[in-house]
Amino acid sequence: MKRKPKILIVDDDVDLVQVMKGALESKLFEVIVAHNGKDGLQKAKSEKPDIVILDIMMPVMDGWAFAEQYNKDPALAKTPVLALTSFSDSLGQPFPFQVSEYMQKPLKPKDLIAKVEGHLKRLGL
Q: What residues are paired with 85 via a beta bridge?
């Protein structure tokens, strides 16, 4: 039996997390949740997700600090990070850290699933 792809959601918006989690689980993905960047880094290291969905503005450790530390860890840096943000593209080439893709909030569940499935396909999962 093929293993379920594992998705880590790092976002402090409890309601949005529940919507994303439900949508992704409906496609039989395993979903892990962290509500700040610090917990997200710990879960990324211990759970080894296939994709990370990352909010930018969070308490304790924001998405910028998360991505900076994440990309310094060779074991994590190869895992795609999809940044989910309410910031507009008008901020310039979007942010001062490398992620696989930027997604604008609000994002419809079907669009989130399509983005995740596209990245999983590129990973061969």
A: 104
pTM more than 0.85: yes
Domains of the chain: 6-123 (3.40.50.2300)
Task: Give CA–CA dist 89/76, Å, rounded.
Answer: 26
pLDDT digits (tens, 9 = 90+) for 76-122: 988 999 988 776 554 444 555 667 777 888 889 999 999 999 999 99
Helix H, strand E, coil C: the string for the chain is CCCCCEEEEECCCHHHHHHHHHHHHHCCCEEEEECCHHHHHHHHHHHCCCEEEEECCCCCCCHHHHHHHHHHCHHHHCCCEEEEECCCHHHCCCCCCCCCEEEECCCCHHHHHHHHHHHHHHHCC
